[in-house]
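User: Design a sequence. Structure:
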């Protein structure tokens, strides 16, 4: 157990999150609003939904401060339930989960190079009415010479329950140390539905005929258009620490997702 002396918080701009923020300020006036002051804190409480939690993780990536989310959104997969009382005690009892992001390096048709991090997934999408054509190379070995479809994504375990699952990919336990490589509406090869790769794998996605069949790459919130190649690896030098109530921990939620209809 860990006792946090200096507590900060951030809130989404949605009406629900702002209402909760006002309650938090009244109940815990000594806590720091991180949108108003840039100071050192021991933990940051995040008020919002999963999307806002991802934004906050990216925002405070250099601080390495633990984040404790309280759901003011819809799904709240990365967050805890909101209760105003006994929050300091909940922080003390919370269990920590460490997440590692994906590192995306994208090269554009005009020679531009873009690097970005993704906590959930890196996705490639066709930009036009024509299907994308991609070549997939894993650890310098060509695995699929031509994938034809809407695109492809690489998901972390934390992101495996999001877009990856909607695209037909597997749900991955956090301790599995694997990444999901999942095609999006594949047309060729017809029987390929994706792969599970070791987290140490390097994945190169070459866009075939990019002038005729343009493709965009997206790493969480960073979109790069007209890419010619995308290189993806897991970045173990960077990590995020999320805190969860013992009865609401992320490992158990991922297990439950595999047994729900």
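Assistant: Done.
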């Amino acid at each position: 157990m860990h006792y946090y002396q200096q507590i900060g918080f951030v809130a989404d701009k949605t009406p629900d999150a702002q209402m909760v923020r006002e309650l938090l300020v009244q109940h815990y006036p000594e806590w720091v609003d991180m949108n108003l002051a840039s100071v050192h804190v021991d933990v940051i409480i995040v008020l919002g939904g999963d999307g806002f939690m991802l934004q906050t993780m990216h925002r405070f990536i250099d601080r390495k401060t633990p984040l404790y989310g309280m759901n003011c959104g819809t799904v709240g997969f990365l967050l805890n339930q909101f209760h105003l009382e006994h929050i300091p005690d909940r922080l003390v009892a919370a269990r920590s989960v460490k997440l590692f992001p994906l590192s995306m390096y994208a090269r554009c048709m005009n020679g531009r190079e873009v690097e970005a991090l993704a906590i959930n997934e890196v996705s490639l999408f066709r930009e036009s009415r024509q299907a994308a054509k991609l070549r997939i190379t894993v650890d310098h070995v060509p695995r699929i010479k031509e994938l034809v479809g809407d695109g492809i994504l690489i998901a972390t375990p934390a992101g495996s329950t999001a877009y990856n699952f909607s695209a037909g990919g597997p749900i991955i336990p956090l301790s599995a140390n694997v990444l999901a490589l999942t095609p999006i509406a594949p047309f060729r090869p017809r029987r390929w539905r994706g792969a599970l790769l070791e987290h140490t794998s390097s994945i190169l996605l070459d866009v075939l005929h990019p002038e005729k069949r343009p493709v965009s790459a997206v790493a969480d919130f960073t979109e790069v258009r007209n890419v010619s190649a995308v290189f993806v690896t897991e970045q173990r030098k960077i990590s995020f620490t999320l805190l969860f109530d013992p009865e609401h921990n992320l490992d158990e939620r991922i297990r439950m997702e595999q047994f729900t209809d």
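Residues 97 and 171 are 17 Å apart (CA to CA). The longest strand covers residues 141-155.
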